[in-house]
Amino acid sequence: MARNDGTWGINTRLAHDGNDPSDYFGFVNPPVVHASTVLYPNAATMAGRSQKYTYGTRGTPTTDALATAIDSLEGSAGTIVVPSGLAAVTVPLLAFAAAGDHVLIVDSVYHPTRHFADTMLKRLGVEVEYYDPHVGAGISKLIKANTSIVFTESPASNTFEVQDIPAIAKAAKAAGAVVMMDNTWATPLYLKPLDYGVDVSIHAATKYPGGHSDVLLGTVSANETCWERLHEGFVTLGCCAGPDDVYQVLRGLRTMGVRLEHHRKSALEIATWLEAQPGVARVLHPALPSHPDHALWRRDFSGSSGVFSIVLAGGGQKGQHAFLDALTIFGLGYSWGGYESLAVPVFLGDRVVAKAPEEGPVIRLQIGLEDVADLKADLLRGLAAASA
Ligand SMILES: Cc1ncc(COP(=O)(O)O)c(C=O)c1O
């Protein structure tokens, strides 16, 4: 069967990368290998661990199929598959941080990443400092002799500031720090972090790769320099994912390109329309020309996904809750990247550097695969309730 020779388009790669059907009697999908024990043919092979698979925690044909497909998308030397997006954040941080290190994390980071840094990392003797998402090359002023990691996430969780990743990566590299990026929003279809100087690219595969709100998974992909240490940390922690979940994400990946294109178009149409609606002070979506970081987004990203926020024109928490309670199609639920639309109230009280919008309360929207006209009608119900 034809294999990717480097010329394939993105949807061809999503459809075929990973496993080779000829390895499994022609079945197009790989088997779901449930495994702890792997048998060895003799003592010498066992002593030398000289066979491809050695133990369930260290990889199976199922995890290899997904990791290979992700490597192809990310351009990485290797990918680990872990049980959640949050584990995809914590495992590399644990693999690379040591007591006495200084770690720089963007202030607009996904809240559980901050919680992990403020609790476990600090307890392990790591100094944690948050930086402004607009710091750019100015990050060099924050880098110390013991800075070992710069952790980025762009666009920002909930407020969607875009970071100058190449400038940050250049300054971090010059100081010998490892650059990690949570790239969940863009997926490797709209940004390939390793092409911009990032060393370790992180995904909550729970979102667009899974795509159906029924599975939790994370992937972490590293360049040649960082792969060995990342893999060593992964094996040491024993943080492997269950085979059914891995299979579900590989299955989701096959259709991710067409789903994402639909999310992209619908979200952009709705975001543009929301800008003109009474009761909306601002729409925080980096693909809108009105977004302060739009030029940076255009320079580095090749598309936008389906998650963005709106800032209501006043109304406080009462207006925010009225908006949310009036919605009938949008569900009130965390996570995103699934087929269904969701809305959440945004809390920004944890930030220490990045400023929260001041015009009114913030609501994050995940635009699903429903018809845009129905979603607009639902949002009008929310806006009417908020202003009532
Ligand atoms: C940017 C980002 N990273 C990581 C995660 C964690 O993913 P999971 O829910 O699979 O733990 C999330 C979840 O919302 C997220 O939004």
Automatic annotation (TrEMBL):
Report the EC code(s) recorded for this entry: 4.4.1.8
- What are the record keywords, sorted? Lyase, Pyridoxal phosphate
Q: Which Pfam families match?
A: Cys_Met_Meta_PP
Enzyme class, broadest EC rank: lyase
Cofactor(s) needed, names only, are:
pyridoxal 5'-phosphate
Q: Which reaction does it catalyse?
A: L,L-cystathionine + H2O = L-homocysteine + pyruvate + NH4(+)
Known InterPro entries for this protein?
Cys/Met-Metab_PyrdxlP-dep_enz (IPR000277), Cys_b_lyase_bac (IPR006233), PyrdxlP-dep_Trfase (IPR015424), PyrdxlP-dep_Trfase_major (IPR015421), PyrdxlP-dep_Trfase_small (IPR015422)
Q: Name one GO molecular function term.
A: lyase activity
Instruction: Reply yes or no: does the keyword Lyase apply.
Output: yes
Family assignment? Belongs to the trans-sulfuration enzymes family.
The record's section on PANTHER family has:
CYSTATHIONINE BETA-LYASE-RELATED (PTHR43500:SF1)
Q: What is this protein called?
A: Cystathionine beta-lyase
